[in-house]
Design goal:
By secondary structure, this protein is mainly alpha-helical. It is about 90% helix and about 0% strand. About 0% of the residues are buried. The mean pLDDT is about 85. It has two helices and no strands.
């Protein structure tokens, strides 16, 4: 959450808390209705801000997930390359061992 979002959320929450602390029993019905309308509006703004923050977080997670998938693909490619190299090296070692064995048997 960015600093401006945090500040906005704090201000909205403070305003809602201030409205919630009002003594509703002393107010005439018209002012009570306006108070409840103001509370609902602030609550709606708080929810909208929180939804926006969740959307931003989802976008960040999606970007990270894509990066991790790319890394996994690169690591799989590297693993396959290493496996192929190991097979080739074993085959070369086998050929060299047979060649050295054959040369030693000819010398004996």
């Amino acid at each position: 959450m960015t600093t401006s979002n945090e500040a906005a959320l704090t201000k909205l929450q403070d305003a809602l808390d201030a409205l919630n602390s009002q003594t509703a029993s002393d107010l005439p019905s018209t002012q009570l209705a306006k108070l409840e309308t103001a509370k609902a509006a602030l609550y709606g703004e708080i929810q909208a801000l929180q939804v926006h923050q969740l959307d931003e977080r989802d976008a960040e997670y999606s970007a990270l997930t894509n990066e991790f998938q790319d890394c996994k693909s690169d690591l799989s490619d590297l693993s396959n390359w290493i496996t192929q190299r190991q097979k080739r090296d074993r085959a070369l070692f086998t050929l060299l061992s047979k060649g050295v064995g054959l040369a030693l048997s000819l010398l004996a």
